[in-house]
Amino acid sequence: MEFKLEAHRIVSISLGKIYNSRVQRGGIKLHKNLLVSLVLRSARQVYLSDPCPGLYLAGPAGSPAVSPPQPGEPAAGPPAGWGEPPPPAARAAWPDAEPRPERLAGSAEPAAPMTGAGDTPRGGETEAAEAAWRCVEGPREAAEGGAGGPAGGSDGFPEGPRGARGPCGCPPGTEERPGPLGACPRLDCCCAPRPAEDEPPAPPAVGSRKRGAAGVGGGPGDCPAPGSSPRKKPRRNSEEQPGGAATAEEEEEEMETGNVANLISIFGSSFSGLLRKSPGGGREEAEGEESGPEAAEPGQICCDKPVLRDINPWSTAIVAF
Amino acid sequence: DIISTVEFNHTGELLATGDKGGRVVIFQREPESKNAPHSQGEYDVYSTFQSHEPEFDYLKSLEIEEKINKIKWLPQHNAAHSLLSTNDKTIKLWKITERDKRPEGYNLKDEEGKLKDLSTVTSLQVPVLKPMDLMVEVSPRRVFANGHTYHINSISVNSDCETYMSADDLRINLWHLAVTDRSFNIVDIKPANMEDLTEVITASEFHPHHCNLFVYSSSKGSLRLCDMRAAALCDKHSKLFEEPEDPSNRSFFSEIISSVSDVKFSHSGRYMLTRDYLTVKVWDLNMEARPIETYQVHDYLRSKLCSLYENDCIFDKFECAWNGSDSVIMTGAYNNFFRMFDRNTKRDVTLEASRESSKPRAVLKPRRVCVGGKRRRDDISVDSLDFTKKILHTAWHPAENIIAVAATNNLYIFQDKVNSEMH
């Protein structure tokens, strides 16, 4: 919980720094941007692996939603998220990810995947996670992803980062999401909001969230479903973008990540893509109903590639820049 | 302007400072005066010159800052002094000469230099050198440009007195002092795919005695000792110094705080001193597994890393310094505090560089930062530390207990009265 909040905050701050670095005198500082990108990555991991994704969903009411990490895999929770190598974290996170009670109900399914996910070779998860990140940073990708467009996500995988969703790859979702979530739509942006406990169980409940709910469900983990097809490696660029933009071109790309403020708002507002189910992701954010079941899958979505790919609004934003 | 580097020359007679505006100011120590036996020779301004100007890289549409990142003195071979100064992209060799005499009594020219009317010249004289007011002339002798794509973070003159190296984020180049159109790349850690970048070079230095050895530090907290005899391209290190991370201290910012901001060989050449965000560490060249000594500079900041990340303070690059006998190490901190650690007695002291506490001849009072618990009268609490007042650059006289401390745009020079006492 606090971890997630803090992680989210750190993500926002980091993005702000990356954005500001482009206008600093003397050009992009490679070292500083690299460090910022490392922090971003750690925060993202925590964000994704934090068991209480839905914490903020409740908005002011603050449903504490922080369910204690599910028994399942050992406490992945924050500790796991702290920056341990993605695979373990992700893995660990999965089980916990579900904190949501609702989820429990349907958790069988999720659980399975999660576990499965857990067993998934790290590579997969990592990749997914990484990919998610990359998406965030890769402007180009976003542009390319544009096709998938905000709308909804379309599956982005193949498209690559589109929307880089950010920590949890929650795609901006197609529309505004503010609604139901009210208060925190973005806060955790990443999946969290969405996954909020409520989400899964009642995807439609949140209106726009609907979409997300499903996907999000899972919660932070980005455990690509066992079956998920390997992430698209290509786009990896974001990871290093921030830090790595040493050359002009790279810098250029980096920069195109766009206006941070917009990014953040996008982050927050929509996660439609989240629904995606890990496997294949082809799921479109589709309407909540669909998400429902998936939503149940804890943790999967969040940064699942599909989700990530879907960042419609995100990509729009990116493209804009 | 904000001082960005401080460096004593090899004898300690001269002290050079570089600032953000591209200027270099050199101070000279006055010879001890018999009139004031207590004054061990104070430093006065000797020369000021503009070393670098802002430039614009049209190809990349980037402005190149004129801030002087580092100054290194060359060993002195004749009456002139030479130093290297560098900004992000270009290194310059400056020669500093004194002129305190001038010829007078020319036959063909008058005092102002105008040609005399030859008909008025009735006898010949030999021009004589007459004393004049000391004039310090500084002239750029070499400009080493276009050697670096990334930002230069350090330069180091080799003990062979002929070559020097310059390091940027990803590469280290070896130059000959007399050759400006060519340099040799000796380290290149740029990955084929920039997306795979995980660490950058943060500092580098030549060994003080072995002209084939140099060390470079990375953002991951490791040090690599390289031997130029092994290969032309020293990508493969001879020794890798790295301390395993303490898992109990893991946080979001673990990577940032483990990044080494400065590395310095001891005068003896046996040890290396590194500074990362919260500690200074002494490494023995013969032991790669971990440092032999670790000193906490301001561990009370460990719980505040998030705020320090927000206000960018966590990216501050503090330097460190050895004293002449390698028994004491010094580094800066916040609130204009700087710290000294005595390696033998294991005592440490925190001092402050501020106008209020630095009246001439006054003895610096040790300061203390309290972290909860009992608070003494003059203690400063962690929350009242001023993070805008940071001491990043310090230098220690090569032989005596004289230190130069740069506090933003002020330079403080402290001398040891009696034997330095560590508390």
TrEMBL record, chain B:
Keywords: Repeat, WD repeat. This is Serine/threonine-protein phosphatase 2A 55 kDa regulatory subunit B. One of its GO terms (cellular component) is protein phosphatase type 2A complex. Belongs to the phosphatase 2A regulatory subunit B family. GO terms for molecular function: protein phosphatase regulator activity. The keyword Lipid biosynthesis does not apply. PROSITE patterns: PR55_1 (PS01024), PR55_2 (PS01025). SUPFAM superfamilies: WD40 repeat-like. The keyword Repeat applies.
